[in-house]
Amino acid sequence: MNHDSTTQYEPLRQAVRHYVTEEVIPLEREHGLTWNIAPPKDLRRKVRLRAKELGLYAPEMPEAVGGAGLPFLGRCIMEMELHSHDTVFFEDVLGGGGGPTPILLAGTRAQQDRFLAPLMAGETTTCFALSEPDAGSDASNLRTRAVPAEGGFVVDGTKNIVSNGPQADFGIVFAMAMGADGPAGVTALLIDSTAPGYDNSRSHTCMGFTGFQGEIALIDVRVGADAVLGEVGRGFALAMDWINANRIRTAAMATGIARRALARSSAYAMQRRQFGAPIASFQAIQLKLAEMATELYAAESIVTRSAWMKDEGQDIRLVSAMTKLYASEMVNRHAYEAVQIHGGIGCLEETGIERIYRMVRILTILEGTSEMMRLTVADRLLKAAPR
């Protein structure tokens, strides 16, 4: 990997910046939107359609399905830029957790026409429904069941803390398929949110992300055999492929937020005066800013390196865990220091600093807790150790 690998994406990064600052954030202000509630579906759709028009939406998806075929590295660079700005439409500019996902490339032509095509057009959104009340870190221990019936399945179970769950038009639902001799393995199912028995009406009040997560209750939901994404019993492998890549994307998100925290802290330190001088002239503040800048550089470096490795077809199971672990914990340290640098006003809602502090906490849990990331790293290292 060389320097040119990242500089070639500079025009796309600038395009993201321009769209967010000149169109998306003004749209928020025009409608008085805040982080206390998820933005309306019609405005989210408007943002997606404009992003699609600008060539920013789902850029890493293959050209054959309507994407730009951009390498994952380019997507992560765009992701870092997006999250260096504060916008409630963060899921819609590039197509986040509710947008087009490579996991749907495992679908049949009919499935892609029905689900992926409108998703790529920005007309619909989806959700990745894996987590359950009793299956978080132990994601293979699903209680949701898909029981064979009349050429298809009857699905029963509950999914919780599902990103974009309350607003998704369809869910990528993971359930334990049952066979004649017992469990046949975790299976991915594409289920329309209007299907009888599919209830996504409960929205979670989540720390920093109110309205973006929710619960999905599945009560005697009947689907045909054509709802199976990929193969019966192969859903967990599909999920982990998605999760490993998304850990790097989550790290890019964390890195972008860290840029925002550093930029705001540096600017505030230059303008805030105490004892007759800007607080930026005090060594205690300078040390904090220097530490933040150094860690930010390290995070940017490992995000771009790990994304490049994915593009090269290398095994990213180890590096995705490392990258997500470092970046998610780094941004939490940055949020803490940003509040310290701002002092009392850093705890006030109008500064936006306290929201960064609340928002980033979930990043050490999302896509695998920090503890699970450390166990993954240790496991991979020890398996490779000489015996």
Overview of the structural elements:
It contains ten helices and ten strands. It has 387 residues and is of the alpha+beta class. It folds into three domains: 4-120, Acyl-CoA dehydrogenase/oxidase, N-terminal domain (Butyryl-Coa Dehydrogenase, subunit A, domain 1), CATH 1.10.540.10; 126-233, Butyryl-CoA Dehydrogenase, subunit A, domain 2; 237-384, Up-down Bundle (Butyryl-CoA Dehydrogenase, subunit A, domain 3), CATH 1.20.140. α4 (72-82) packs across α6 (235-271), α4 (72-82) packs antiparallel against α7 and α6 (235-271) runs parallel beside α8 (317-342). The mean pLDDT is 93.
Oligomerization state of this entry?
Answer: single chain
The CATH topology annotation of the largest domain reads as: Butyryl-CoA Dehydrogenase, subunit A, domain 3
Alpha carbon gap, first and last residue: 32 Å
**CATH domain class of the largest domain:** Mainly Alpha
Structural class call reads alpha+beta
Number of helices: 10
Shape: globular
Query: For the record, what is the CATH homologous superfamily label of the largest domain?
Result: Butyryl-CoA Dehydrogenase, subunit A, domain 3
Number of strands: 10
Largest sheet entry: 8 strands, mixed
Radius of gyration: 21 Å
What's the CATH architecture of the largest domain?
A: Up-down Bundle
Measured by DSSP, the beta-strand proportion falls in 15-25%
Number of domains: 3
